[in-house]
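ok so i was messing around last nite and threw this chain in just to see what happens. nothing serious, just curious
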Amino acid sequence: MSNKLTVGDRVVESRVWLAPMTGVSDLPFRRAAARLGAAYVATEMVACAEFARGRPDVVRRAAVGEGLPLMVVQLVGRDPAMMAAGARMAAAAGAEIIDLNFGCPAKEVTGVQSGSALMRDLDLAESLVAAAVDAVDLPVTVKMRLGWDDASRNAPEFAARAQAVGARAITVHGRTRSQFYKGAADWSAIADVKREISVPLIVNGDIVDLASARAALQASGADGVMIGRGAYGRPWIAAQIDAGLEGRMLADPDMETRLAIALAHFRDALGFYGERLGLKMFRKHLASYIEAAPVPASPEARRAARAELCRLETPAQVEAALTRLWLSERRLAA
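result:
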């Protein structure tokens, strides 16, 4: 199987994609992942109505910057006119693929009848896809869940309807909305979607390493995988899994390399947001980098280090403390 996927008139140079993640996949994170070989990293979910009104925080989520191999903007909304407007704004900003969110389970999203709530109204969901497709001359893709709950697993029907009105790829998270992130993703259920569509199908949910990627592809029959929470603190994971699927094994970064990756990401965040906001915005990433690292060896020590570093108030303090933590731990383990 080729390691490339064709989405409309765009070629994605990998079949391992990084998911849009609220509070995670901002521009500095996407650039960090791209530097490490990720070919597809979507923006955070962007609300169409607020995007169209130019809210600074929402516009920032869809920021276009240097260092990205592909610009993918994910939109969420429930009004076809606003979805079309959001798609046009994303295209004007430089988007190359527009992804529509029908999978977010968060109450603040479903409570306003967006995200996965739209899987209870496939007529409206289909009209949103059609509105975006008609508004722009770009590939439009769709991300969904298996359904709202176990009594309404309608992903195959929605995928077929989305393709019929012009969607060029479908991603399915192997859980219902009612599950949130509990239990295990049902990759085999996604095989029912594969039988209904001819555009690329991407399997999502619980993919954290090469073994789980292979298992998800085998169970679902999908063309590619999408990694969400498995990328926390590991922006290299997409390229690592992609290499593994091709038979090339990439080892985890050593501690010096992890430090260099984290510091480059941190400095990019400071440059993008400014020092004060950048320090605040990076704390989630800092916690994830520490939690994902092999040292300190004990979970308790990692938690203590994470709590300490995330309270620091200057960039110099963060850089010095992270350097001491990882390099001193490495020397002790040597």
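not much to say yet. The first strand starts at residue 5 and ends at 7.
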